[in-house]
Amino acid sequence: MTASAVLLKDYRAPAFLIDQVELRFELGETGTRVSSRLQLRRQDSAIDALHLHGEQLELLGLTLDDKPLPAHRYQVTADTLTLFDPPAQFTLGVETLIHPELNTALEGLYKSSGNFCTQCEPEGFRKITYYLDRPDVMARFTTTVVAERERYPMLLSNGNPVERGELADGRHWVRWEDPFPKPSYLFALVAGDLGCVRDQFVTRSGRTVALEIYTEHDKVDQCAHAMASLKKAMRWDEERFGLEYDLDIYMIVAVSDFNMGAMENKGLNVFNTKFVLARPDTATDADFLGIESVIAHEYFHNWTGNRVTCRDWFQLSLKEGLTVFRDQEFSADMNSAAVARIDDVRNLRALQFPQDAGPLAHPVRPESYIEINNFYTVTVYEKGAEVVRMYQTLLGREGFRKGMDLYFQRHDGQAVTCEDFCAAMADANGRDLSQFMRWYRQAGTPTLKARGEYDAAQRRYTLHLAQSCPPTPEAADKEPFLIPVAVGLLDRDGSELPLRLSDETAATGARVLELTQAEQSFVFEDVPAAPVPSLLRGFSAPVKLVCDYSDEELLFLAAHDSDTFNRWEAAQQLGVRAVLQLLAVRAEGHAWSLPSTLAELFARLLADDSTDPALLEQMLTLPSEAYLAEQMAVIDVDGLFAAREFLRKGLALHHRAAFNALVERLAVHGAYSLDGEAIGRRALRNRCLDYLASLESALVHTMLSRQLESADNMTEQLAAITLIAHGEHPARLAALESFYTRWQREALVVDKWFTLQATSKRADTLKHVCTLLQHPAFNLRNPNKVRALVGAFCNNNAVRFHAADGSGYAFLVERIVELDPLNPQIAARLLGALTRWRQYDAGRQALMRGALERILDLRGLSPDVFEIASKALAG
Ligand code: B3K
Ligand code: ZN
């Protein structure tokens, strides 16, 4: 495999622009004809050839200003069409034949459950027709879709429908016009026999927008929550950012074969069914929240991504980091803000911190890639969102809004860079943010060390802060970041002390310190007694905070901090300490016992009836194995699992009565409701059951069976079946079977059924997963199924995937061998599970390296998989 890298520094403005595109699709069962007419205009007179992108296309015809083009005027290769000496302005006519019916990569035009749909971002449009398939070429599109009326009654594309008609041969057509210039990656087409749910939204300026959600006919009763979420998102964006929708119609189509979550095509979003369909009996509370956030995310892209887009794919975080931040703020406003923030950080720490510390670490704005699809990463998205959040933390909500307003004022209709965004924020607020740009250029998670010093005689508290950042593949030495550190000081009874730095005259409450140097000290005056500092409140920067709190101080913060994030964080840190302490004790040959501080923390939490149940649930959840693994120089896979299980069981035994009482008290009676209170109660109750289930008592087994039978909602049903399947419940096999029988017609529930089996820690799980590969409901061509079974096993079952005999790794290699020829994007994603091989012991390292080498030896490897495997081995 030879693959070449694309570099940010090689960016050149396009030599030609396209003003207008007219597309005509004749959709067929054995091939689709695509005709396009492009109005082109030369930008750079020094360039004497036009290079269009195109892959897997059969060229049927080519005209220039309506005259057939002689063979010597152009050249076709596997990925380009070159026109020699084109005029300064001309119309190019291109006819191609493509095969959506054979497209298993799910990029470009393809079929899902018999319907046609598209996925063009980032470079799928070139698999539809020859084009300047780059985001800085923005054109007005008119699209005519022609297809058999019977099979494809719905014909959809971007913009507004302007004309429709019938053909004599049983086909019909619809013409769509999108008045907004857009890059080709936002193009979309859908044709099929679909049910539709309709509603409308009146914008704040009084325009009525038609809202339509399309799905398979028997699923239209599962679209209500998505529709309600869309309307909330539209209102929120008007209120928070003054942004209004701009077309007369907004359509969402749910398809079951989709490489990722959803896609923000202009006026015609295409969604994975997972992020549209929900009914209380089929979807969990987490699913409902996930739908609300993804629906909002794609809607928000209409401004951050579509109206203002990216100059090139290196700027991906310009739209993704910003839009994730926007959807996070939306979810925080719609639900428990404290829990939303904790979830964001949990996710960042479990997925992004490891990436930032491994061989695939890259800056929020990467400088090189082989396959851009590999760069839709947690770093670009989630760390990118943290970077955007830091602007808001530094500038305040109002200052951030001013920056956003200026950004749209300057760049509406343009394709821009991360510098442009930073400049808008800086200029709108009269600030110099040049140092802040380092967050885009330097990879790696900085460490922030904090040390406090109290001088009783001077009534003075000094906070010493120091930052450092580990080397990453792109750079060994890092320049200091501008780190916003939100702090408060608590006195001994838990109240906030007024804060006055030595150069200030008046005191304020909690505030944001700006750390700009490698080391800096902040001196607070008039501090009456030694305080407990609450640092990095709300997780004000994506860093690892190191501070030598005593166990008592952490217990104190967990109980008293007014910053809910830091209450949770204090509890997490006690959990981390407990696990690491057990591992240390065992290394010294001693037996384990339940750490008293953790027992004390749980006693307090279980007796706390004033805290929001959703927050309590978070505080009662032990740190994930992924986060714990990050704290170890060499990951002790089995030790971590054993220690965590020991704590789970130890806490359950120690606090059995309290857990039981809570389960009783929290039972939700009456009809299912999705309000925050009910969600919190279900979550906390299920968490208590999770502890109790570790005891494997007959009593708990009965409780679980009862919950599985009687629950009217998937949140409780799934919690019960998972605990039954993962433990020693006598009816576990029967329960699994009847769960499948009951839900076999709901593909998304069947996905849950695969996942709960793949994540079982039982010794025979891999064998069982291999059997499930043959199950009639499993399908390697369907990404949701692959993620549910193979992805869940490799990423969410560390003890079994990292089995010391290498069986988990061999299993993954076999799946990559099968998948790469079908769908390289999904294959490359799965490979992520092997990239952090350096973190493991010598035996596992050798096995993981061997697996990566076996993959690199394969013939005809995709650039997607090649890039991940080769970088993983090199790093
Ligand atoms: N922009 C799309 C992601 C496209 C991924 C292509 N591999 C969805 C989103 O982030 O909203
Ligand atoms: Zn996005």
From TrEMBL:
Residues 444-545 form the Peptidase M1 alanyl aminopeptidase Ig-like fold domain. It comes from the Bacteria. GO terms for biological process: proteolysis. InterPro entries: Aminopeptidase_N-like_N, Aminopeptidase_N-like_N_sf, PepN_Ig-like_sf, Peptidase_M1, Peptidase_M1_dom, Peptidase_M1_pepN, Peptidase_M1_pepN_C, Peptidase_M1_pepN_C_sf. Its EC number is 3.4.11.2. Keywords: Aminopeptidase, Hydrolase, Metal-binding, Metalloprotease, Protease, Zinc. Its cofactor is Zn(2+). It catalyses: Release of an N-terminal amino acid, Xaa-|-Yaa- from a peptide, amide or arylamide. Xaa is preferably Ala, but may be most amino acids including Pro (slow action). When a terminal hydrophobic residue is followed by a prolyl residue, the two may be released as an intact Xaa-Pro dipeptide. It is an enzyme of class 3 (hydrolase). The keyword Nucleotide-binding does not apply. The keyword Amino-acid biosynthesis does not apply. Pfam families: DUF3458, DUF3458_C, Peptidase_M1, Peptidase_M1_N. Signal peptide: none annotated. Residues 226-439 form the Peptidase M1 membrane alanine aminopeptidase domain. Residues 43-186 form the Aminopeptidase N-like N-terminal domain. Residues 551-874 form the Peptidase M1 alanyl aminopeptidase C-terminal domain. NCBIfam families: pepN_proteo. Aminopeptidase N is involved in the degradation of intracellular peptides generated by protein breakdown during normal growth as well as in response to nutrient starvation. Belongs to the peptidase M1 family. This is Aminopeptidase N.
